[in-house]
Amino acid sequence: MQTLHDYQGFGVSLREITQVFNLFGADKQVLINETGFGDNKVRALIDYLKDFSLASNTRELTALGEVVRKADKRLVEDFSKWLCVYHWSAQEHNPVLFYLLNHADQGLTLNDLQESFRLWASANDIQTNYKKPYVSGLISKTLKALTDAEAFEKLRLIAIEHDQFRRMDPYGVHPLLIAYILYDNKKGRQSITIEELLTEPGNVGKFFGYNPTSLEHRLNDLAHLGLVKRVQAANLNMVELPYSGSVLALVEKYYAEN
Description:
By secondary structure, the protein is mostly helical. It has helices spanning about 15-20, 30-35, 40-50, 65-70, 80-90, 95-100, 110-125, 135-145, 175-185, 195-200, 205-210, 210-225, 245-255; strands at about 160, 165, 190-195, 230-235, 235-240. The strands form two sheets. Strands 3-5-4 form a three-stranded antiparallel sheet. A hairpin with a 2-residue loop joins strand 4 and strand 5. Helix 1 packs across helix 3 (about 40-50) and helix 6 (about 95-100) crosses helix 7. The longest helix is centred in the middle third of the chain and has 14 residues, at about 110-125. It is globular, with a radius of gyration of 19 Å. The mean pLDDT is about 95.
């Protein structure tokens, strides 16, 4: 059964996370001494880096983490922030965020969101019965991270209005970010339908909350870069996936060109 990450009670502050990010690989005591943070906070910030897919364990960055740290060590670029949110939204990293983007109905009140998440989590082998308020805590941390200037507010992924959440028109979405997410979800396929892109959990349409028109515009951007090809097959609106390089190379290309 999957358990929730409490992050030692600490929320997302990119300023604090990058202090640990830039010292990563050092002994934990060095991290504590250099940042001035306590042991619990350092552990929490490492957990965030792991769930952002920037770190693989307590001492090593992932290949993605190495590329991002070299290019944007303070995580100030929208592209870097989007990478963090995208990987954080994986069900195995933050099931609350995964549920919010892929399954929750817009207009839910925050109380209804908690109850609906519990029902979904129970059906998906995710533990919600804790002595401490881990469920409400992770929901609060997640929503605050997406709407806080210290974290990801600028990306406009969601908004909270009148105690209800809604999707927004996302900001700062570069075509190479779209390509990264599209090919990260390729799963051996050579093509994918528009309908699948709009409804498949974690894929481009669901993650960004795109409607068919918005998705068409973004796919046209990728077609101009030669990263997708539009075809009609058996009355299905298909997207061929001709790119054969690594998803990491798409990230490297972005940072090299911007």
